[in-house]
Design goal:
This protein is mainly beta and 392 residues long. It is built from two helices and 28 strands. It binds fe (ii) ion. Fe (ii) ion binds next to loops.
């Protein structure tokens, strides 16, 4: 996140001796400093202070291939995937992830876990992750602190963060997730030259849930970290607890943002999708469709016009409420409108929208600049008929 945050205790000056409190035998020694950044030494970074060296690999165990199995490489059909038909998985968040739509920049999938990650930690060394919490609540525990989450939260986890996800036991989690090979940022046009979100941005720093409650474990033993790199999941055993940070500061940290805090931009006539933009990368954008008043020109048509997103594939994940431009859409559905052919409101939707004053819809849209491929799992959720649903 392009602002400064700090938790715990840090040295008064960077790269200088930072002494541990004296133990029973006199000196406590020095804390171990780690610079943790992305994009070499050019991107956002944080400076961490560990009790133990963060480099103590004890053993390297098995590696498991996790590359998605692609079923349709060149897709030209509009698709509707019935997301909630994905059965709950008797496993945790990592094990339950099912990739559905992929290209070389991004993987988009669903997860319906029933358990929490307990006996290991996870790090994605390939990609920034975006999680959208559709059902359930819990805590994202990271080496930089904990972020409680609930329905409607986006969680942005920069690559390399070591984390665990705990769900509250009575909730039945449903998540949309993205793995992005380029960093996930807030839209540049909403930031000034110093990185501050501008007045016309639909959200501001106050809406960002930053990590709190830094956990510091001074423990030695066997600590398993599953590290995703080059699509393989490598299992490394470390000699110390990965959450042994006593303090950190900087700009590189995970954060949350609730879709309920997105303030929609409206107009006299229909506003295009960029007004809903919430995140950007080099390869796709993420937009939040939220309850809002409709256009107020006396002859306005609130439903969108047909449009040819010739240069991008458009994915919409339907969260809640009525989605005004589509027929037969329910929470958990995913539509894919491939680039190359136009799409638009379903028959009757344009007429139905005229005179309406507001919408209660919630949806997350992902527009990728390169075409998406469908996995074998995606085909099991595909209704198979959506591409003809604009016929009279
Ligand atoms: Fe569209």
């Amino acid at each position: 996140m392009p602002f400064y945050h700090t938790l715990g205790h840090i040295a008064p000056k960077r790269h200088t001796q930072f002494e541990k409190p004296p133990g029973p035998n006199g000196t406590g020694g020095l804390y171990y400093e780690q610079l943790f950044g992305t994009i070499g030494f050019e991107g956002m970074s944080s400076l961490l202070y560990h009790i133990h060296r963060p480099t103590m690999v004890k053993a390297v165990l098995e590696s498991v291939e996790t590359a998605p199995r692609v079923a349709v490489e060149k897709n030209m059909l509009s698709r509707k995937l019935i997301g909630f038909e994905l059965p709950p998985s008797p496993s945790d968040f990592l094990e339950s992830r099912v990739p559905l739509l992929v290209n070389r920049d991004v993987t988009l999938g669903l997860a319906a876990p029933t358990g929490s990650m307990t006996n290991y930690f996870y790090k994605n060394a390939d990609a920034d992750e975006l999680l959208f919490i559709h059902r359930g609540s819990g805590r994202l525990r990271t080496l930089l602190g904990t972020i409680p989450f609930e329905y409607g939260d986006y969680l942005i986890i920069p690559r390399g963060m070591i984390y665990q996800i705990e769900f509250d036991p009575i909730t039945q989690p449903r998540l949309l997730y993205l793995e992005s090979h380029s960093p996930i940022y807030t839209p540049k046009r909403y930031r000034n030259q110093f990185g501050q979100l501008l007045e016309h941005s639909p959200f501001c720093e106050r809406d960002i849930k930053r990590p709190q409650h830094l956990e510091t474990h001074d423990e030695t033993g066997d600590f398993l970290i599953k590290i995703k790199k080059q699509s393989a999941l490598h299992s490394l055993v470390y000699a110390t607890h990965p959450f042994d940070v006593v303090g950190w500061d900087g700009y590189n940290f995970p954060y949350g943002f609730s879709i309920f805090n997105f303030e929609p931009i409206t107009g006299r006539v229909h506003q295009p999708p960029p007004v809903h933009q919430t995140f950007q990368t080099d390869a796709f954008v993420v937009c939040s469709f939220c309850p809002r008043l409709y256009d107020y020109h006396p002859k306005a048509i609130p439903a969108p016009y047909n449009h040819s997103n010739i240069d991008s594939d458009e994915v919409i994940y339907y969260v809640d409420g009525d989605f005004m431009s589509r027929n037969d859409i329910a929470p958990g559905h995913i539509t894919l409108h491939p680039g190359g052919i136009p799409h638009g409101p379903h028959p009757g939707a344009m007429e139905r929208s005229i005179g309406k004053k507001e919408t209660q819809e919630y949806a997350v849209m992902v527009d990728t600049f390169r075409p998406l491929m469908l996995t074998e799992d995606a085909l099991t959720l595909d209704d198979g008929a959506y591409y003809q649903s604009w016929m009279e």
